[in-house]
Design brief:
Elements lengths: L2 E4 L5 E5 L1 H9 L3 E5 L4 E4 L10 E6 L4 E13 L6 E14 L2 H22 L19 H20 L2 E9 L3 H5 L1 H4 L1 H4 L2 H14 L14 E5 L14 E5 H7 L4 H4 L4 H12 L5 H4 L1 H11 L5 E5 H11 L5 H6 L6 E3 L5 E6 L8 E3 L5 E4 L5 E2 L2 E2 L3 E6 L6 E8 L5 E6 L2 E7 L3 E5 L4 E6 L5 H7 L25 H5 L12
Parallel strand pairs: 1-4, 5-8, 7-12, 7-13, 8-11
Antiparallel strand pairs: 1-2, 3-4, 5-6, 6-7, 9-10, 13-23, 14-15, 16-17, 18-19, 18-22, 19-20, 20-21
Bound molecules: zinc ion.
The site of zinc ion has 8 residues, from strand 10 and helix 8.
């Protein structure tokens, strides 16, 4: 993973390799600014040569992929064709907490509803006095937008980013319907197939039209079979699982579904109706685009069909970060097999000071101030315990208690009851939790692994430092010596 570099005046320079960063730190020419994303500041340099960097985003409902790439173009000497090359520098996955926000607001609404029925039940209800401003988004979606923009701004402070790319829509409707606008590449080339596929997945809600199966590989199915003169138009296509597709073979849909007239009618109606405007489906993505435009950087937008096309053509596994790297017009991606920084939005604590049981009765109260002995919940600490049952080095996110006896969440589990005297802050709480994935986490692997976090290959960043974790003696510690090695941090 590339290391971010700032100059003496804290302006971003080109990111460097881990090895270079380690040498700079060893020679005392640089100091560590942040641990995640790992950033150093040069003590003796002002300004430097910059190259074009592009930050690419693949916004998702739960995770947004981030990829920082260096762009270059090569020109074929014979044909004169220009190839757009990308070198992966840094990959991240921003894990949103929309669900948690939703649940918290639902809980609050229930409290208020209950209080109203207890205490103010005769007060007349008020309606129409709470207007919503133009462009309002539900808080869970607004959070997704805000955190994404926040990370674009953070990364701009760490690297000289000159352009942005964002996946705006799942599929490009113009590419499907308007041959004049989109050109040969879309209409006849390989890309058309990808856009059609994404469109169908959206239109048929990723289910088999005949049996309703989900989460199975779906094939494109001709409603009027090709053998009977059916066309390739989108209105003649649907999705079917392999079993249904083969059972139907080249029967007409009327024959195939003659015992299920209701389903037949529904499929025929749905096939004729075009999918509603994609803008409504993707309100957040459009809002994000408008927010990204205010940064003043040029923003390239692309469709999910193109992302998939690039990813398949370049033979890159499907992860959120690598999807981001494949967004937009790109001919080759190099150095994509790199560790990924997982950035989990954790929030900065709750406003409510009362903890309740499930039935809503108070269980206990939180302290009114956030700091205890100079520590705050969410700080990233290193605790060196010299003797006793908990002897060892524990590095992780701290949860404070009023008594000064803290819990530290480490990759090996939570260590409870560590005195504040053993702890030292590595990085202050900033509302995010950080983890490094050394291998690409594909969708399949993620599905197989969740919710068991221990098997995710999760590596909290400083695990490389931990003498305390005998469990982590495998390749992680070997690979992740990098700039995170103990000698390079602070000392
Ligand atoms: Zn089926």
């Amino acid at each position: 993973m590339a290391v971010f570099v700032l100059d003496k005046q804290k302006r971003p320079l080109m990111p460097c390799t881990e090895k270079r960063a380690r040498l700079l730190l060893e020679r005392g020419r640089a100091v560590v600014v942040r641990l995640a994303p790992f950033t150093i500041r040069l003590k003796d340099r002002i300004g430097g040569a910059l190259q074009p960097l592009r930050l690419k985003l693949d916004p998702g409902s739960r995770v947004t992929g981030l990829a920082l790439v260096r762009e270059s173009e090569t020109c074929d000497a014979d044909t004169g064709a220009v190839e757009r090359l990308e070198h992966g520098l840094w990959f991240g996955e921003l894990v949103h907490r929309g669900q948690a926000i939703r649940e918290a607001l639902t809980r609050r609404r229930h409290y208020r509803r209950a209080r109203r029925s207890r205490k103010t039940r005769y007060r007349a209800p008020r309606f129409l006095n709470r207007p919503r401003r133009e462009g309002w988004l539900p808080p869970s979606l607004q959070h997704r937008l805000d955190t994404t923009v926040n990370w674009v701004q953070r990364l701009r402070r760490l690297a000289p980013i000159t352009a942005l790319s964002q996946e705006l829509v799942r599929f490009d409707t113009q590419a499907l319907q308007n041959p004049e606008i989109s050109g040969v590449e879309y209409q006849q080339g390989e890309l058309a197939g990808y856009e059609v596929r994404e469109y169908l997945l959206e239109k048929w809600r990723r289910t088999c039209a005949y049996c309703g199966a989900m989460h199975v590989p779906l094939e494109i199915e001709h409603i009027v079979p090709r053998a009977r003169g059916g066309s390739d138009r989108v209105s003649n296509l649907t999705l079917a699982c392999r079993a249904c597709n083969q059972r139907k073979a080249n029967q007409s849909i009327e024959d195939f579904l003659q015992r299920q007239p209701a389903l037949l009618h529904q499929i025929q109606a749905q096939a004729r109706a075009p999918l509603k405007d994609a803008t409504a489906v993707n309100a957040t993505r459009w809002a994000l685009l408008n927010a990204l435009k205010t940064t003043g950087l040029p923003v390239e937008t692309a469709s999910g069909g193109r992302t998939k096309f690039n990813r398949t053509r370049l033979d890159i596994p499907k992860t959120h970060a690598l999807d981001a790297a494949c967004v937009g017009a790109v001919d080759q991606v190099r150095d994509w097999n790199r560790p990924v920084l997982s950035i989990r939005a954790t929030g900065r604590g709750a406003y409510s000071r009362t903890r309740t049981f499930n039935n809503g009765f108070p269980r206990g109260y939180l302290i009114r101030h956030k700091r205890v002995q100079g520590f705050q919940t969410g700080d990233w600490v290193r605790a060196e315990v010299l003797k006793g049952k908990k002897a060892g080095v524990h590095v992780g996110r701290v949860a404070i208690r009023r008594t000064g006896s803290f819990n530290v969440q480490t990759p090996g589990g939570t260590v409870e009851g560590l005195s504040h005297r053993y702890c030292r802050v590595l990085q202050r709480a900033d509302g995010y939790g950080y983890t490094i994935h050394t291998k690409p986490v594909t969708e399949d692997a993620r599905r197989a692994a969740t919710p068991n976090r221990a098997t995710r290959g999760a590596l909290f960043l400083p695990a490389s430092q931990g003498r305390g974790f005998s469990r982590k003696t495998d390749e992680h510690s070997a690979r992740c010596s990098g700039p995170y090695a103990p000698s390079s941090i602070r000392e």
